[in-house]
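Hello forum,

I keep getting stuck at the same step: I have a sequence, I want structure tokens, and every attempt I make locally crashes halfway through. Rather than fight my setup again tonight, could one of you with a working pipeline run this one for me? It's a single chain of 211 residues.
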Amino acid sequence: MAARDVILPHFPDLTDAQIDQLDAIAQTVWDWNQRINVISRKDPEVMLRHVLHSLGIAKLMRFEPGSCVLDVGTGGGFPGLPLAVLHPETEFVLCDSIGKKIKVVQAAAKAAGLNNVNALHARAEDVDGTYDFVVSRAVTRMAGFLSWLDGKIAQDSKHDLPNGVLYLKGGDLAEELSEVEASCRVTPLATWFADPFFETKQVVHVDLSTD
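Reply #2:
Ran it on my machine without issues. Output:
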């Protein structure tokens, strides 16, 4: 499945170069996945289930030029790499505690010609710097995830949404989010994407600003 068929209908402002970049990411991850298991080998729909899923965050909010975004537990580069394609003037740091997955991310970023991506073999707790937003795809329960981010959220918000976390996760999140003291907003991805895959998928915004 090509980006022109799967992604462009939802993001009609994409350039031909960006479409090629998304195709390069999907193909590189799929090729590496035959040797290093970074996504399910039973799941050939990389463009729909990984690239478009990642871009659900961009449907909720677009990152401003000059922003900094941290992708925690990036795996094969999701959601960070597709978001980096859509936001070439935003800096992305993608981290994962498993080194072989970071090799895949680096290869995919190189194949796509992304100059705004830094891939790190590191746990979130050990990554330096502050970020406007932290993005992730269902790494762990939210309360535990937030405990990794102490001191990592910049307090000068410059987006429509306050600085914090943008988290992709499926299922009933009521119990999990009840453990979180910060304000949470849940938006179903079915708001934008009609494919049955997205019926139970959501993007969660957690406000970690002090404004």
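The longest strand covers residues 164-170. If your local run keeps crashing, start a new thread with the error log.
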